[in-house]
Write a structure and sequence with these properties.
The chain has about 190 residues and is mainly β. About 15% of the residues lie in helices and about 45% in strands. The protein has 2 domains: about 1-110, NusG, N-terminal domain (Alpha-Beta Plaits, 2-Layer Sandwich); about 125-185, SH3 type barrels. The protein has a 6-stranded antiparallel β-sheet, covered by helices on one side. Strands 3, 4, 7, 8 and 11 form a 5-stranded antiparallel β-sheet that branches. The chain is globular and about 45 Å long.
């Protein structure tokens, strides 16, 4: 895969010739240096990659009692890029990218359905949490509403019913509150 790396105004710029005939595009997972998600997202978007960086709005109160809405990454230090496997090397060459997440020596990927499920959860405007210590629950399917048809795990916390989509590649579960009437057993 030919690529060039030029230093321009103190920044590295990557450009590449794409060969779309090899393999199929998948959502690859990249682990980044802390707090560089937005920078890498912009860099890859400028290089015409389809990038997914899920963020949530949070209200923070500063020492002077001022409230401010800020964007926080849903998965800190992770970025999802829709690309071919042969285009991973130029992305890994970006200084802020630590590595491509792998399992058994092969790049880990997420399905289109998992990415779409996260996007739909973000659009609902409800509180979303990410569980890294996952407690096994019952497998369920959502029967009605905007997430209809998605399969996941039922989790009960503090008398609330939560639905989670497991991302096994990075050992995280994205959870959202749902009504029990919207769920059906698998």
């Amino acid at each position: 895969m030919p690529y060039t790396r030029k230093q321009k105004a103190g920044r590295y710029q990557l450009s590449m010739a794409s060969n779309s005939s090899a393999g199929e595009k998948k959502w690859h997972i990249f682990y980044l240096r802390p707090r560089t998600e937005s920078l890498v997202c912009r860099m890859l978007a400028n290089l015409n990659y389809e990038v997914f960086w899920p963020v949530i709005q949070s209200i923070r109160i500063w020492k002077n009692r001022q409230k401010k809405k800020i964007k926080l990454p849903l998965f800190p230090n992770y970025l999802f890029v829709y690309t071919y496997a042969h285009e991973l090397y130029p992305i890994k060459r970006i200084p802020q990218v630590v590595s491509c997440v792998t399992c058994g020596g092969k790049p880990s990927t997420l399905s289109d359905q998992e990415i779409d499920g996260i996007r739909r959860m973000l659009c609902l405007g409800r509180v979303i949490t990410v569980e890294t210590k996952f407690s096994k629950g019952e497998r369920v399917r959502i029967l009605s509403g905007p997430l209809k048809g998605y399969e996941g795990v039922l989790i009960t916390q503090h008398s609330k019913t939560r639905f989670g989509i497991q991302l096994k590649a990075i050992n995280h579960t994205v959870c959202i509150d749902v009504a029990r009437s919207e769920l059906g057993k698998l």
